[in-house]
Amino acid sequence: KKDKKDKKKSASTTSTNVVPAKAQPTPAAAITPQRRMASDDIDSVLVHKKVNVVISLLPHALKNVQLHVENSMRQYLMKYSDGMDGVLMAYENVRTLKKDHAKGTGWILNELPYIHYDVALDACLFCPKVGSKMVGTVNECFASHVGILVFGYFNAMVAAEDLRSSGYNFNLDTSQWVAEGSENVIEPNIPVEFIVKQIHECNGIMSLEGTDLTIRLLVDEAMPALAVETAATIKKEAQQEVNVENDDIEDDIEDDIGDGQSEDRQDQDAEDSEAQGMSDDDDEE
Question: How far apart are CA 97 and CA 104, in angstroms?
Answer without folding.
Answer: 9
